[in-house]
Amino acid sequence: xxxxxxxxxxxxxxxxxxxxxxxxxxxxxxxxxxxxxxxxxxxxxxxxxxxxxxxxxxxxxxxxxxxxxxxxxxxxxxxxxxxxxxxxxxxxxxxxxxxxxxxxxxxxxxxxxxxxxxxxxxxxxxxxxxxxxxxxxxxxxxxxxxxxxxxxxxxxxxxxxxxxxxxxxxxxxxxxxxxxxxxxxxxxxxxxxxxxxxxxxxxxxxxxxxxxxxxxxxxxxxxxxxxxxxxxxxxxxxxxxxxxxxxxxxxxxxxxxxxxxxxxxxxxxxxxxxxxxxxxxxxxxxxxxxxxxxxxxxxxxxx
Length: 303
Fold this sequence. Notes:
Blueprint: H1 14-38, H2 44-69, H3 78-101, H4 107-114, H5 117-127, H6 135-153, H7 161-183, H8 189-211, H9 216-221, H10 223-245, H11 250-258, H12 260-272, H13 278-302
Helix pairs in contact: 1-4, 1-10, 1-11, 1-12, 2-3, 2-8, 2-10, 3-7, 3-8, 4-7, 4-12, 5-6, 5-7, 5-13, 6-13, 11-13
């Protein structure tokens, strides 16, 4: 799930930055395949708990090295701890809905529906935070709804349970991004990421052991998926995102990161034989148009 933050990483050139962000989209898109394979035989909570704790462990040494090099100490006040706790809780909710939804829907569907958070964010900002919303955002939201209808139902009047769970997850991803945007001003980005992954992992694993204790062995059988999504998707993906967004223009980042949904569909088709009908492909195109329009509107507003 994309998080915008800043780091002291050496600035790359624009081409290298764009390639890094493209790699992030490919990695995150491929992660939907690993999650889809693991979903039927694993607990969403235990699976997420293990992979986010693993991601936190991967990033802890990086935080330690940076802290030592910069001669900094970890300064956290009560507000910082509260910010990390809320970020981790929102992340746990979004990840739980996403992983549960993957039991009943395809990797491609999950990727595109998750991407709707870029449309949901400005709507939340308008409705909850009372910020003005531009006409292109409403158009983007309408396109996203139309595209979701075609993708999820194939013009049949029913919404699949898996797609509904992914949509609920997209809502929490949107809330998470909004919250992270506020906390990033108070907490170093890498420390914020590590802390929220740790909180998310503890919450998820704790709930899993309480609700589905017998699923722990099933999750161990999908250890490769936990390793891939924890180390590669979260750990490496986040690092490359910081590296890329340090230099890449906002327009480049918005377009390249939105391609996560496209790569999820491609990988789902190639590795899982997830075929789409013509109307579903059309729905994906309409949704992608809405997602890009929402990002474009935000870019125009910044300028």
